[in-house]
Amino acid sequence: MLSAPIGVFDSGYGGLTVLSEIKKRLPQYDYVYLGDNARAPYGNRSFDVVYNFTLEAVKFLFQQGCPLVIIACNTASAKALRSIQQQVLPSLYPNNRVLGVIRPSTEEIGQLTKSKHVGVLGTMGTIQSNSYVIELNKFAPEINVIQHACPMWVPLIENNRHECEAGKMFIEEDVRELMKKDPKIDTIILACTHYPVIKKQIEQLLGPDINVIAQGPIVAEKLADYLLRHHELANRLTSGSNTKFFTTENSIVFDEKATQFLNELVVSEHVEIAI
Ligand code: DGL
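Above: the input record for the complex with D-glutamic acid. Below: its predicted structure, written as tokens.
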């Protein structure tokens, strides 16, 4: 039987923080992860470029047999998800589904803040898209949303520089900038799937009164719920508990870093996805 895995995509390694939570919650399924590491980071790229790269990635995952793809990247979710859902799927892949990470996160945040002042840390692309402000306004209009872009964080994490002195300085500066904008913030959403890697660093800077939220567990829970409500899709997925990894970069480089991110041995295959 051909496998029908859940596809998980990110510009680089960040989506692995989401994949690991999804696998914990739904260990029975098969998965295919694709990191477009050769073209990461996406954060400072234009709308059109992120859309085209994301579409190439989604098409590749469909070719791998995935009936469902999770865009585990906020930048790509902000800039490409809606167009793919509305313009590409209905005509070309009417039976396939693509989901992102912004909506599930914004559905939950309202219940997590007491002060109703929520900070959003993300890439330049995610913050400039205003997606979190727009989505949060739908689910919890009473919340004050304070955004701050951290353009250095993805490059620091991708290059393993987040724990060196210069890296720590950038992280501290951005966290302080956000809190300076609104000291009433009591909940911060890490609106980039790379950031859970530095969650502890951020928590140490903020102290115990501020709740720092990673998206992985939320996305995993929402996906489990989505599959319960969409039997026709869930029934198409195969349950072999296998995970395949693809990267657009050199696979040896990817394997070393991905193994650290996931805490399990990763053996990937190099792939070209540019059409
Ligand atoms: N993990 C991606 C996100 O969630 C990083 C984007 C980038 O490549 O800059 O936004």
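Notes for the reader.
Residues 10-12, 14, 40-43, 73-75, 123, 126, 154, 192-194 surround D-glutamic acid (CB under 6 Å).
The longest helix spans residues 74-92.
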